[in-house]
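$ fold --in a.seq
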Amino acid sequence: MISYAVWLYFRFPLSLRMVEELLAARGILVSHESVRQWAMKIGQSFAKQIRRRLPASGDKWHLDEVAISIAGKKHWLWRAVDQHGAVLDILVQSRRNAKAAKRLLRKLLKKQGIAPRVMITDKLASYAAAKREVMPGVEHRQHKGLNNRAENSHQPTRRRERIMKRFKSAGQAQRFLSVHDQVANLFRRSTHSKAADHRRARARAFQAWTEITGVVTVA
């Protein structure tokens, strides 16, 4: 039941109270605060296990940053995805400069263990400055039209931001999105996949989720 509640919360654009109501419809009476506590306590553990199970990332990284409002102040959500649309990592920061870009690149290299063949960004000069220092041998393409994959990856975050009535702190945004994006990776549907292929991929995702959580996912 707990893993089901956590799956609902991170997989779909639902508020805590919506999850509470969906559980109540199944005869499971818990408070939205319980759902929040479950998400906080075990969400990161699930995300780490998902990350270990996913295939190796692609060799082309798309990086982008988008402004988000937290407690009335502008912050920047930096996100990297590969050419297949899988989210590699995110980082919530208060700055949009070379230092912030370097933090993202170093975090990515630490997590991925290898530099990409190509890095694609918009024309923000901070990326070029950071790349020269952190990944000097990587090809860097700067063109807004090439980076639609990274820009599109922000859309689910925008939907969650509206449902949650904005993030309460940078830490909360970082913790939530770190789990949210990994769950999305596990259940991600390829844009051009056929229905039969999608059903097989979804079955594999549910099997992985079952193994990660140790219980059968409710259908």
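$ fold --in b.seq
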Amino acid sequence: MRLDPLSLRLFVAVMEEQAIARAAAREHIATSAASRRLSELEAQLQVRLFERSNRGISPTPAAYTLLDLARNVLGEMDGIGRQMREYGMGMRGHVRVVANISAITQFLPAQLQSFMAQHPEVQVHLQEKISSEIALAVAQNTADFGILNAGHYGGDLRYIPYRTDELVLVAPSGHPLTQQAKVRMQQALTYDFVGAHMGSALNGLLTRSAAQLGMPLKLRIQVTSYDALCLMVAAGLGVGVLPRKSAALYVNSLGLQTMALDEPWAQRQLVLCMRSYEALPSAAQSLLHHLTDPNSDSRPFIP
């Protein structure tokens, strides 16, 4: 059987767009040609992929199975082309990494600096996403591996421990809570909060904690970055929750203070996730080994 990559790519587009015409436009081919390719693909596979009616198309169970297989095949083919192009350009590897903001601000700067000093021929493309999007990106092969909060995200992914992440409460100097070394959420929830963006893990933790205590979470403002959160806290708009090492970047410059959170969820586990270690390009395997080396981030990041 000789499967045409163009037909597989068109099939994936149809599944994502849920319409042949939109998929055809996305792939820059005529709608009639797209429909013919799909029929030929069904004939090759000897299985019906779509139920057709006056209202459009409806994927069959076989189509959903083929979707995962096609994405994997196309991802591997794109990887072959990408790596060969990089060799032609004089580069010996390209690693696609997605990570959450906690990993990016606390651990990755020093680790990537030392790795790239040892492997100047390897190009690392790092993108920030929230944990659920990281798992999806790895599962769909748009990233080689990811770094995210430990949890249940579905999909056939492999997880290995990365680092421990401690959350602390951040408040401006002179705030009543700064008189304590440790703070319970029951005390903190009596004050306004500066929160992270919708869908973030930090907001989820705060919301669940407030619900369990039967107290309102008074989010006065929500921001999309740690530096913006610290600036708002420094301006007196509320207190916030951040990873300890991330908060330390702003404490002195903004006159902030941090207090330990006396809550079980304040200790988090960050994990690395991948589809398969054996399927990773050699450059990605080298970076993975470096990131899991406990000595690789022992030296501070030097900008």
